Amino acid sequence: MSSNERQRVERVPGSRRARLTPAPGTDPAPELPETADAPAAGAEASDPAGPNDDRMRRDVPPHY
Fold it and tell me: What's the distance, CA 26 to chain centroid?
């Protein structure tokens, strides 16, 4: 395995974190692109609301 077949660490200007290059033989594109038809995470479900739904949405973990 030569050095050009491996992942490399790249510095990102203005960022504290580095980025890895894609691994050889992998597809760096996401598996399922987000579409306008798909509901966003945390969107309202079509299921009827349960008795604790309002309370669960109001509750905030103590570290917030």
Answer: 18
Contacts of 26 (CB under 8 A, 6+ apart): none
Q: Which two tokens stand for residue 2?
A: 């030569």
CB 18, CB 9: distance < 8 Å: yes
- Could you tell me if 19 and 8 are in contact, meaning their C-beta atoms sit under 8 angstroms apart? no
Please report the pLDDT score of residue 13 as a whole number: 93
- pTM summary value: 0.36
The pLDDT tens digits of the residues spanning 37-62 come to 655 555 555 667 788 888 888 888 77
Rounded-to-10 torsion of CA 18, 7, 26, 37? 0
